[in-house]
């Protein structure tokens, strides 16, 4: 018969604290940008609308980028979990080989 260890689901339970998406924003002096746009011929309402659009686009772009990113700590933890799982598989293979040749 085959000898196999129980599959452990604990390898993906570890909690890692990362900065929430809402807190990851590009910050810049919006007032200075509005003033600069006004100085270059834009009306105040136009300048404010442009700055508002830039903020929205920046945040949407960052949200898209951050969704696919992991921290170095998360990556290291995942690597350790995978390596531990591979070690378990290797042990199962050794046990299986020994039981076949016994």
From TrEMBL:
What does the UniProt entry say about where the protein is found? Mitochondrion membrane
Q: Which domain of life is it from?
A: Eukaryota
Q: What is the name of the protein in this document?
A: Coiled-coil domain-containing protein 90B, mitochondrial
| Family under the similarity heading | Belongs to the CCDC90 family.
What does the record give as the organism's lineage?
Eukaryota, Metazoa, Chordata, Craniata, Vertebrata
Q: What organism does the UniProt record list as the source? A: Anas platyrhynchos (Mallard)
Q: Name one GO cellular component term.
A: mitochondrial membrane
Q: Does the keyword Coiled coil apply?
A: yes
Q: Which UniProt keywords apply?
A: Coiled coil, Membrane, Mitochondrion, Transmembrane, Transmembrane helix
Pfam name, any one: CCDC90-like
